[in-house]
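Suppose you are handed a protein chain with no further information: no name, no annotation, nothing but its sequence. What can you learn? This example shows the usual starting point.
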Amino acid sequence: MGELELTPGSVLQRRTEARARKYRGKLYIAVQDQALELDEVAQAIFRRINGTSTLREIAAELAEEYEVPTDEATGDTVDFVAQLFAHGVVEIVA
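A reasonable first move is to predict its three-dimensional structure. Written in structure tokens, the prediction is:
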């Protein structure tokens, strides 16, 4: 079986093992013995991971919301979600 690669067309969902907690205005995601602190943009991406939207669709929403070029938002979204994937926070569904 080959290694899965994230692309702008990938669809992901949050893993049930990943726990999100807001503490003092910051969002933390915990998986096993790891915790990740998410900044504002990372939180916006994480909230949109729903098992149906592609990374391209998520990035397009962010590009509009933050008034940045779509290509830049797409690259940043794929890069960040790859980190979430590597930490076991999300899984690829399509």
